[in-house]
């Protein structure tokens, strides 16, 4: 059995520099070479997992098949690499310390003093080694594991992990371990030139901790010229080909292409002895190139409004945004997404903040489709109910997710059934009509009795949703504590709110539609978690098609696109001769390989 190869991705200067996308891009490139890849994300915070975070802390909480609540970067890995990760693919300081303390209580350390070195660092190494070998695609053991260390080098909470990898590089041998350091190269407006000192300092600090970067990936706002690359090479003790420059691009799908054009495959092939056949064929990464080109060529816009509670931080809805983008790529249109704070749609806001109130309603009225995503707590609930009411009455396409389903059910009960006291027990435990309730008897004990998490089956009845999915049994990921009260189902259905998706017990409502509406779909699960760039989530695709007026045509053709409705670069057949521009950089791709050429003296 071949030895496992590891790529450690660290970050310097600032957090949020793009380590997640770069780590995913390494995986994408290697997967295109026929190598099976897995990923691990290390978060140095003391929380056991991301489940208790406010979305304003680290963005959305991403949910895995096994119910693991993890960092949103694992969503990036799953989408880019089309793999299925597990809760153990997310390591936190809390998990490591919990494991070590449990061992100490059992007496596993035989009376020794338990310390950061060696006990914590050994636990990290053992965890990485164990999880790296777990299959993430169809029982194939991965060949390369990409490990992303969250935060920045020098953070006190990340020190034990850096030390663990300093030891790990010797444990697995040099040819099986590679360190890639992502750093920011700022360009102050006052000077107008890129500054390399932060990167030099960051690399020096990493070296001082015992890790020497094999690749330095420089993130910048604009393309960096060759002189700056040479300077980083000289001061950071690496060859020029080990300095990879990644400036801000129009879409993340361009990142793997730009990295590959700068020789990443050749370098990793030699450094990690991957035995990849070189040079790569002309059609290398063809699907990915077509995707990037297609995104670039989208022209016709579709205006979608997202009515949410955490709209001040866009990462709070990262997977929802990505799922909308995937649907737009398939439908051949460009996403124009407007975030609307749900509170601003409420009648009370007309008094408290009249400008915000009228702006929110103006944005909602301009939209061609509306999405009402999940959330927790009572703030903004009435605003979401207002949005559902407006979409239902004006026949505007709408997709409700999790709390969005609950809001749509409450709205329907109030305005169609005339139950003015209808509400959720999450918002008002003593409400007159409990349309949405906590169902603790259904909560399995191993999830702490607080949440229904992970992948569950939903059985669909014949409807627009079953047609879009092209099957009558689906598996989607869940994350919720409250659900629709079964006692009201008969009344709701008689009035025109059909529940066309239920769990195996038929007591839990999973999918609701309004009869006679062009597209009013609400789901209890989170379809965004399983959306992929080349395989969009059906409910999201339905929303985008309905918003652009293409849904009837799509359904009449048996859920197939006519070639004209898609971009002209979707073909995966034939030879691929193409050119892509990245600002001042020009990438030519043909049968002889890739060339990144200089334009206006920039390399």
TrEMBL record:
Glutamine amidotransferase domain segment(s): 314-544
A Pfam entry, by short name: GATase
GO biological-process terms attached to the record: 'de novo' CTP biosynthetic process; pyrimidine nucleobase biosynthetic process
Keyword Ligase included in the entry's annotation: yes
EC number, as in UniProt: 6.3.4.2
GO MF term list: ATP binding; CTP synthase activity; identical protein binding
CTP synthase N-terminal domain segment(s): 5-274
Pathway entry: Pyrimidine metabolism; CTP biosynthesis via de novo pathway; CTP from UDP: step 2/2
Class of enzymatic activity (EC top level): ligase
Catalytic activity: UTP + L-glutamine + ATP + H2O = CTP + L-glutamate + ADP + phosphate + 2 H(+)
Gene3D superfamilies: 3.40.50.880, P-loop containing nucleotide triphosphate hydrolases
Signal sequence interval, chain numbering: none
Keyword terms: ATP-binding, Glutamine amidotransferase, Ligase, Nucleotide-binding, Pyrimidine biosynthesis
Family: Belongs to the CTP synthase family.
Name the UniProt record assigns to this protein: CTP synthase
Lineage: Eukaryota, Metazoa, Ecdysozoa, Arthropoda, Hexapoda
């Amino acid at each position: 059995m071949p030895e496992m190869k590891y790529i450690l991705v660290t970050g310097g200067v600032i957090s949020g520099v793009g380590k997640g996308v770069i780590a995913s891009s390494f995986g994408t490139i290697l997967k295109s070479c026929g190598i099976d890849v897995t990923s691990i994300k290390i978060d140095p915070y003391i929380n056991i997992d991301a489940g208790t975070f406010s979305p304003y802390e680290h963005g959305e909480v991403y949910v895995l098949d096994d119910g693991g609540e993890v960092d949103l970067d694992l969503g990036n890995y799953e989408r880019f690499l089309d793999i299925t990760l597990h809760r153990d693919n997310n390591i936190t300081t809390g998990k490591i310390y919990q494991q070590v303390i449990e061992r100490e209580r059992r007496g596993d350390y035989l009376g020794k003093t338990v310390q950061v070195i060696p006990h914590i660092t050994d636990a990290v190494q053992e965890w990485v080694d164990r999880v790296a070998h777990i299959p993430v695609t169809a029982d194939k053991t991965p060949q390369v594991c990409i490990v992303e260390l969250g935060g920045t080098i020098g953070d006190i909470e990340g020190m034990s992990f850096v030390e663990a990898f300093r030891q790990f590089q010797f444990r697995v041998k040099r040819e099986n371990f590679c360190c890639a350091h992502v750093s920011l190269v700022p360009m102050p407006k006052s000077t107008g030139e890129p500054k390399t000192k932060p990167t030099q300092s960051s690399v020096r600090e990493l070296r001082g901790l015992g890790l020497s970067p094999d690749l330095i990936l420089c993130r910048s706002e604009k393309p960096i010229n060759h002189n700056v690359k040479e300077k980083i090479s000289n001061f950071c003790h690496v060859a020029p080909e080990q300095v990879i420059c990644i400036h801000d691009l129009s879409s993340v799908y361009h990142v793997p292409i730009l990295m590959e054009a700068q020789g990443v495959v050749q370098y990793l092939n030699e450094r990690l002895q991957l035995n990849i056949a070189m040079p790569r064929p002309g059609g290398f990464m063809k699907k990915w190139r077509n995707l990037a080109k297609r995104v670039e060529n989208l022209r016709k816009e579709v205006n979608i409004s997202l009515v949410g509670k955490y709209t001040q931080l866009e990462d709070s809805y990262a997977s929802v945004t990505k799922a909308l983008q995937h649907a737009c790529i398939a439908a051949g249109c460009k996403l124009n997404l407007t975030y609307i704070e749900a509170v601003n749609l409420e009648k009370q806001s007309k008094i408290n903040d009249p400008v915000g109130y009228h702006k929110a309603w103006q944005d909602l009225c301009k939209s061609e489709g509306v999405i009402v995503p999940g959330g927790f707590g009572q703030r903004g609930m009435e605003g979401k109910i207002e949005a559902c009411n407006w979409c239902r009455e004006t026949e505007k396409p709408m997709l409700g997710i999790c709390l969005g389903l609950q809001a749509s059910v409450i709205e329907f009960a109030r305005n169609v059934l005339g139950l003015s006291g209808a509400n959720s027990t999450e918002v008002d435990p003593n409400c007159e009509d409990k349309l949405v309730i906590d169902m603790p008897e259904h909560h399995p004990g191993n999830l702490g009795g607080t949440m229904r998490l992970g992948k569950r089956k939903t059985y669909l009845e014949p409807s627009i949703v079953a047609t879009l999915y092209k099957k009558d049994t689906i598996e989607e990921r869940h994350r919720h504590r409250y659900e629709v009260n079964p006692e009201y189902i008969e009344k709701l259905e008689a009035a025109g709110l059909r529940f066309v998706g239920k769990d195996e017990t038929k007591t839990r409502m999973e999918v609701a539609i309004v009869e006679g509406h062009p597209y009013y779909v609400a789901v209890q699960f989170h379809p965004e978690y399983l959306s992929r760039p080349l395989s969009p989530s059906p409910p999201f695709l339905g929303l985008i098609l309905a918003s652009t007026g293409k849904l009837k045509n799509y359904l009449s053709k048996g859920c197939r696109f006519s070639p004209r409705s898609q971009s002209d670069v979707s073909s995966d057949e034939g030879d691929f001769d193409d050119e892509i521009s990245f600002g001042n950089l020009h990438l030519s791709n043909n049968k002889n390989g890739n060339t990144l050429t200089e334009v206006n003296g920039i390399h």
